[in-house]
Amino acid sequence: MNQPHNPQQVLRVENLSIELPPGADRSHAVQGISLDVYKGEILCVIGESGSGKSVLSAAIMGDYAKGLRHSEGVIDFLGNDICRMDEKTLRQLRGNRIAMIFQEPMAALNPAIRIGQQVEEIFDIHAPNMPAAERRERMLALLDSTQLPDPPRIANSFPHQLSGGQCQRVVIAMALAMNPDLLIADEPTTALDVTTQAQVLKLVRDLRGRGQHGILFITHDFGVVAEIADRIAVMEGGVLVEIGERDQVLNAPRHPYTRKLIAAVPALHPELHAPSADGEMALRIEHLTKTYNVGGRSVQALKDVSLELPRGKTLAIVGESGSGKSTLVKAAIRLVDSDSGHVWVGDTDFLALRGKALATNRRRIQMIFQDPYGSLNPRHRVGDIIARAARLRGLSAKDAWAEAGDLLEQVGLKRDALERKPRQFSGGQRQRIGIARALAMRPEVLIADESVSALDVSVQQQVLELLAELQQRLNLSILFITHDLRVAAQISDYIAVMHQGEVVEYGSAEQVLLRPQNTYTQTLLAAAPGASAMPSVPVAPESTVTEPPRLLRPHAR
């Protein structure tokens, strides 16, 4: 723990309870919460969706969503109870003594105002008498302190001209403008790529090292917690179930829920079993290229991509935003036209098909989409959604409905789900419905496009285990698109790493994760949060290494 010898307590939450409106699934959003934060430390509050962690962080800012009511307890900030403050006092506090770093930097910034002006507005509100020259000088110093390159250029830019990581640094600079005593970071790295996330986490650690702020860091990611926390508070169902030093909570958790969450985190280096390289190829992508015209210039999204997926195996495509992995999927299933190349499903060149032949063969490749909420029609019953896919194979309405019930049972849901609407299910249950719909087409290849990224860690684990079970039972071939190396490590037989439209590394999961040849792959692995601090499973012996599929294996660049 990195607290100084005589730390100053900046926040004390004691027996805090916040009531939910009548008719909610429980009586309180948070109940009986007690915790404290000191200057020079990071307290990470971790929990899944609905745990109450965001309600807690908002309450510390004196902000309650509609229908919520403070019913009991104290939020003591440097000797003053926030629960008793009026709105005028709270406005003077927010952004001044207590500052928030938000999850979505693009939503936190005004798209029509230059960055420098947005930072200076903090001084307009909280230091209106500050001279203009001093405001600009401090604004540039703040941008520089968050390690943004060329602060004058950044100050003159609009948000859309910056990357996600740069926008998040701007939001951090704005939070630091008045040198607050307490920083609340609400999932600030969730929307960032792994290398950008690593840079932002380093910045947060640097802020802790200055000793001027107490930091309350809200997250659902135990990898992030392992990387930055001094202490950890675990929330479940609005209740604080465990709090303690980082190493104690990670390595000797006391509460069953904490143990369950940690066990559900995929290991970056799991016990890997090298797959056989022999057998039939379910999917072959040969020399696929795709170019877009953007603002009058050509951008090559795919550069001569070649990959193979053996039947009954899983190939994970790993890469950051803009790497080309989503374009690869769209080109492979003909959602966008490619410039050149071939996509073989068995012995059929998918890109050469036209008309009825294309329609007939489309069922051989099916998608599980990223968003379990947006990918199902909210107006239709679940049974209709699945049965419609089955009827495309020529089944009668009666047989399709019966098969829909069978498929729901295969994915771990009850048959009575047939009559219900998607809104009546959780995110994990909706993703199971999406899998059942895809299976109704009897596909040879299943493409999962970031299909667990929107799910809590324990639900994510359940879906990954379901996919593995279905693959074994049905001999499915799975192309799994992800930015998360931990997920790739758990589910894949082979891994292809994409960067700027190219496959820069391709091999067995064991080979790529344990002995990466490409510097970009090495950078991704090094940037994975909590790689050294999370409990891990011993890896397989070196002697089990095999080569990836023989054909089209690109040279490591």
Automatic annotation (TrEMBL):
Decide whether keyword Chloroplast is in the record. Answer: no
Q: Which domain of life is it from?
A: Bacteria
Give the membrane topology.
Peripheral membrane protein
- For region Disordered, the annotated ranges are 533-557
Which parts of the sequence belong to the ABC transporter domain? 11-262, 283-525
Which Pfam families does this entry report, sorted A to Z?
Answer: ABC_tran, oligo_HPY
The cellular location(s) given in this protein's UniProt record come to: Cell inner membrane
Q: Does the keyword Disulfide bond apply?
A: no
Q: What is its EC number?
A: 7.4.2.9
Q: Which UniProt keywords apply?
A: ATP-binding, Cell membrane, Membrane, Nucleotide-binding, Transport
Whom does it interact with, and what assembly results?
The complex is composed of two ATP-binding proteins (DppD and DppF), two transmembrane proteins (DppB and DppC) and a solute-binding protein (DppA1-A5). Five orthologous SBPs (DppA1-A5) are present in P.aeruginosa, which increases the substrate specificity of the DppBCDF transporter.
- Name this polypeptide is given: ABC-type dipeptide transporter
Source organism per UniProt: Pseudomonas syringae pv. cilantro
